[in-house]
Amino acid sequence: MKATESQPVRVQQATKRSNTRWLEYLKDFSFAVPALVILTLFIYYPLLNSLYLSFTNWNMTKPVKKFIGFDNYVYLLTSDMFYKVLKITFTYTILDVSITLGLGLLLALLFNSVSKFFGFMRAIIFMPHYISMVIVSMIFLWIFNGRYGLVNELLSWVGLEPIQWLTNTKTALWVLVLIGVWKGVGFTMIIFIAGLRSIPVEYYEASGIDGATKWTQFWKITLPLLSPTTLFLVVTHFISSMQVFQSVDVLTNGGPLDSTKAMVYWIYEMAFSEFRTGRASALVIMFFLIIVLLTMVQMYVSKKKVHYEG
User: Is 70 exposed, middle or buried (0-12, 13-18, 19+ CB in 10 A)?
Assistant: First the structure.
């Protein structure tokens, strides 16, 4: 009889515990709501809306959005300009990522020391990271000006002819790469220094006892244990470089002869200069899928090459 009378009590207690757990879950979830709202408004909704517009012929000058299926995608995939712009974007990205990471690692090895002078040098190198890309582009617009730029002035001192840096198809893209490297190498250096300082000193001491040289330690200890840091920098810098826009917009406007027309600038031009919003939206979706696919490839390839301590 007592067991029968206590059963409703146990049910009530279990229900109360379940309700308490749900309240805890809801309270925890409530902390994520502001971030989810922002992501929904500024990322998920625009992406879904772009997907919808990519199947229409909307041109921003007319309210009518006629459904045309995959015509925009077919046009882009059969356009020579699409592959030219993709090649320019990949070229810029490969140059920017490889030079920035290589130079950043070199600077990290050079300035990885606790001293006032090295701390000051790290601050100087890192400072461009905080400067707006528009301001940086304006500075380099003056430095590489074909008539009165600083670089041509220095060339004249050694008797060389001035170069039209921003209107020459052979040099314009390199100027954009130089801007990306100058702005991003400081951040890369700081992240690499953090990675270097996370490597236990005991590894170097043990290898030194075994007779390993500094060069051997670099290749056998430093680089393998820096691989997680390197992967992080490669992925983040790859995504950032693929989306280059402001420097192109300020310095070259995609020229000369479309030699610096990167993908994001072409999307902007197509949407807001030609008013082909449906086609631009299709290009956005294709570019998004390309970045996601290449990022997944990088993550997959890195599984066997990234070494995590322990």
Answer: exposed
Per-residue 3-state assignment (H helix, E strand, C coil) for the chain: CHHHHHHHHHHHHHHHHHHHHHHHHHHHHHHHHHHHHHHHHHHHHHHHHHHHHCCECCCCCCCCCCECCCHHHHHHHCCHHHHHHHHHHHHHHHHHHHHHHHHHHHHHHHHCCCCHHHHHHHHHHHHHHHCCHHHHHHHHHHHCCCCCCHHHHHHHHCCCCCCCHHHCCCCHHHHHHHHHHHHHHHHHHHHHHHHHHCCCHHHHHHHHHCCCCHHHHHHHHHHHHCHHHHHHHHHHHHHHHHCCCHHHHHHCCCCCCCCCCCHHHHHHHHHHCCCCHHHHHHHHHHHHHHHHHHHHHHHHHHHHCCCCCC
CA-to-CA distance for 217 and 226, rounded, in angstroms? 12
Q: Which residue is listed with tokens 């299709």?
A: 282
The phi and psi torsions of 56 (rounded to 5 degrees) equal -125, 170
Q: What is the pLDDT of residues 207-219, one digit of tens each?
A: 888 888 889 988 9
Name the CA radius of gyration of the chain, rounded.
27
| Non-local CB neighbours of 261 within 8 Å, separated by 6+ positions | 84, 85, 88, 248, 254, 255, 269
Total count of residues recorded for the chain:
310
In this predicted model, what pLDDT tens digit does every residue of 269-302 receive, in sequence order?
999 988 899 999 999 999 999 999 999 998 888 8
Q: How many other C-beta atoms lie within 10 A of the C-beta of residue 237?
A: 22
Q: What φ, ψ does residue 29 adopt, rounded to 5°? A: -65, -35
- 305 by Cβ neighbours in 10 Å (0-12 / 13-18 / 19+) ranks as exposed
pTM of the model as a whole: 0.87
C-alpha–C-alpha distance, residues 21 and 13, integer Å = 12
